[in-house]
């Protein structure tokens, strides 16, 4: 890419890597005791009628988040349902499944990617009151709307799923129904 060319999608710095694991409790213990990562916050998410490969699906997933400096590591165990994580696990077992980057404008980003044949395989929005995606310090977390899209990048160089995240902070007094509240 020349200095004059702009990327198709402008992303922010790498937000996190996501590892699919068979057993989240064992994975948390391993990464904590062997590499000193953590503390991890482990939360269960119930996703209802989210888009997976163009069809609505329900899934229950456990996610464990830990920070290494400003960088977040996510461990994902799918408890039930079909997601890109279960697809990855069947094919490869435990391992790095995605890299996540923030974007300012998800709608425009997805339109531009679609023009190149890159479509989301998993997409959803949720409201979180105390989401670990905002800050490693729980006292600094705040309400936010999160829109996530996992892109179908199979067959592309690198072969790793790319997750785009649009995160919008909400004010403390915003009148919203919290679809997901990891702190509870």
Offer a few descriptive terms.
single chain; 184 residues; alpha+beta; 2,3-Dihydroxybiphenyl 1,2-Dioxygenase, domain 1; 3 helices
Describe this structure in words.
With 184 residues, the protein is an alpha+beta fold. It has a single domain, classed as 2,3-Dihydroxybiphenyl 1,2-Dioxygenase, domain 1. It has 3 helices and 8 strands. The chain has helices at residues 24-35, 84-92, 106-115; strands at residues 16-20, 41-52, 55-68, 71-80, 95-102, 120-128, 144-151, 161-169. Strand 3 (55-68) and strand 4 form a beta hairpin. The termini are far apart. Mean pLDDT is 85; it is low at 177-184.
Terminal Cα separation, in Å? Answer: 46 Å
Shape: globular
Q: Please provide the ordered H/E string of secondary-structure elements.
A: EHEEEHEHEEE
Q: Any low-confidence stretches, pLDDT <50, length ≥5?
A: 177-184
Mean pLDDT across all amino acids: 85
| The top level CATH class name | Alpha Beta
**Percent of residues in helical segments?**
10-25%
Roughly how many Å is the radius of gyration? 16 Å
Discrete helix count: 3
CATH architecture: Roll
- Number of strand elements: 8
What is the strand arrangement across the widest sheet? 1-4-3-2-6-7-8-5
Helix and strand composition category: alpha+beta
What percentage of amino acids are in beta strands? Answer: 35-45%
CATH superfamily: 2,3-Dihydroxybiphenyl 1,2-Dioxygenase, domain 1
| CATH topology (level 3) name | 2,3-Dihydroxybiphenyl 1,2-Dioxygenase, domain 1
Largest sheet: 8 strands, mixed, barrel
Count of discrete domains: 1
């Amino acid at each position: 890419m020349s200095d004059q060319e702009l990327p198709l999608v402008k992303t922010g710095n790498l937000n996190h890597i996501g590892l699919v694991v068979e057993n989240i409790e064992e994975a948390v213990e391993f990464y904590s005791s062997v590499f000193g990562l953590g503390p991890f916050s482990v939360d269960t998410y119930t996703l209802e009628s989210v888009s997976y490969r163009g069809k609505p699906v329900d899934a229950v997933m456990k996610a464990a988040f830990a920070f290494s400096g400003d960088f977040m590591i996510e461990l994902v165990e799918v408890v039930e349902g079909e997601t890109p994580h279960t697809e990855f696990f069947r094919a490869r077992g435990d391992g790095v499944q995605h890299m996540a980057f923030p974007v300012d404008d998800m709608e425009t980003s997805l339109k531009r990617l679609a023009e190149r044949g890159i479509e989301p395989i998993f997409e959803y929005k949720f409201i979180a009151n105390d989401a670990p995606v905002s800050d490693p310090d729980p006292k600094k977390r705040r309400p936010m709307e999160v829109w996530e899209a996992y892109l179908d990048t199979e067959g592309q160089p690198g072969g790793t799923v790319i997750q785009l995240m649009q995160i919008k902070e909400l004010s403390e007094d915003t009148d919203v129904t919290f679809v997901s509240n990891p702190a509870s």
